[in-house]
Amino acid sequence: MKARAVRATLIAAAALELAACQSSQSNFQGSQFSNETRALEKQLDGEAVAFGAAQGATSLAASADPTGLSSFVKAPVALAARNAMARSADARMDAQLARDEQELYRRYGMNPDGTPSGKKPAD
Predict the structure, then answer these.
(1) Which of 33, 56, 92, 97 is the most buried (most CB within 10 A)?
(2) Residue 122, domain member (yes or no)
(3) Is 87 within the bounds of a domain?
């Protein structure tokens, strides 16, 4: 039983290491997005990987429960945590994209609502 738990822990650690090594291309390419947006995207991706690894580890521990009751307790808690993390990530990314939009408007001499301001665009 102990060897099984050690093996499962090693597999989980290897999966986490593999997930951490992979990086995807940013979804926010182009001059209309700031480096801060790309950095936030990378940070949110890292948080999601860590959260997924933590959920995997708790699922592994719950699977060792012979009664199965821990799985019933874990499922709604994990779902609530995932939903809270998603709402937080969405809010943070929306705020960053709004800052990028205002910077884009400023750069091209527009008002915050997107109408022309009559000012010369910034170079």
Answers:
(1) 33
(2) no
(3) yes
Among 83, 57, 55, 58, residue whose Cα is nearest residue 70: 58
Cα–Cα distances (Å) from 45 to 17, 104, 111, in that order, read 14, 25, 33
Range of the domain at 45: 2-107
Q: Residue 44: which of 100, 14, 78, 88 has the closest Cα? A: 88
Q: Is residue 49 part of a domain?
A: yes
pLDDT tens profile 8-63: 665 666 665 655 555 678 888 888 899 999 999 999 999 999 999 998 888 888 88
CB atoms within 10 A of CB 106: 15
In a domain, 117, yes or no: no
Residue 19: closest CA among 55, 50, 59: 50
Q: What are phi and psi of 115, to 5 degrees?
A: -85, 155
Beta-strand (E) ranges in 12-91?
A: none
The one-letter code for the residue type at 16 is L
Residue in 30, 26, 25, 27 with CA at minimum distance from that of residue 104: 30
